């Protein structure tokens, strides 16, 4: 026999308040993540990387071929950037079933504090 239940009126009020607070918090988090995404795109676009706008998640996939001219793979690029600037990205080849298809990409996390993204920009500029 299936169970059917309803909330009594007094119990519905805290549930409604919780939903409203959660919706407000989620909207604020979404705005913050959009701002971080835009900042990360701006920071790394100035290096010459090319992007397709991120439409979900908290990562950017950047095409590094304008920077490497085929001279380095993504792993070499990531190592070089880490050695020169102390900025760590993730080699894109790791995200493809055929790693060769991802050799021109890196993954950038933008779920970092804005200050961290700005520091990455300063370090990259200083190392260039």
From TrEMBL:
<dbReference type="Pfam" id="PF00155">
    <property type="entry name" value="Aminotran_1_2"/>
</dbReference>
<protein>
    <submittedName>
        <fullName>Aminotransferase class I/II-fold pyridoxal phosphate-dependent enzyme</fullName>
    </submittedName>
</protein>
<dbReference type="InterPro" id="IPR015424">
    <property type="entry name" value="PyrdxlP-dep_Trfase"/>
</dbReference>
<dbReference type="InterPro" id="IPR015422">
    <property type="entry name" value="PyrdxlP-dep_Trfase_small"/>
</dbReference>
<dbReference type="GO" id="GO:0030170">
    <property type="term" value="F:pyridoxal phosphate binding"/>
</dbReference>
<dbReference type="InterPro" id="IPR051326">
    <property type="entry name" value="Kynurenine-oxoglutarate_AT"/>
</dbReference>
<keyword id="KW-0032">Aminotransferase</keyword>
<dbReference type="GO" id="GO:0016212">
    <property type="term" value="F:kynurenine-oxoglutarate transaminase activity"/>
</dbReference>
<dbReference type="InterPro" id="IPR004839">
    <property type="entry name" value="Aminotransferase_I/II_large"/>
</dbReference>
<feature type="domain" description="Aminotransferase class I/classII large">
    <location>
        <begin position="24"/>
        <end position="124"/>
    </location>
</feature>
<keyword id="KW-0663">Pyridoxal phosphate</keyword>
<dbReference type="GO" id="GO:0005737">
    <property type="term" value="C:cytoplasm"/>
</dbReference>
<keyword id="KW-0808">Transferase</keyword>
């Amino acid at each position: 026999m299936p169970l059917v239940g309803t909330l009594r009126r007094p119990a519905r009020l805290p549930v409604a308040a919780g939903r409203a607070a959660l919706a407000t918090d989620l909207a604020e988090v979404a705005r913050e993540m959009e701002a971080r995404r835009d900042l990360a795109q701006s920071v790394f676009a100035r290096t010459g990387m090319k992007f397709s706008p991120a439409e979900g998640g908290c990562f950017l996939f950047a095409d590094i071929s304008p920077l490497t001219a085929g001279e380095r793979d993504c792993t070499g690029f990531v190592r070089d950037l880490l050695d020169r600037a102390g900025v760590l990205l993730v080699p894109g080849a790791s995200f493809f079933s055929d790693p060769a298809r991802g050799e021109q990409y890196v993954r950038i996390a933008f779920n970092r504090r804005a200050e961290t993204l700005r520091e990455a920009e300063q370090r990259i500029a200083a190392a260039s």
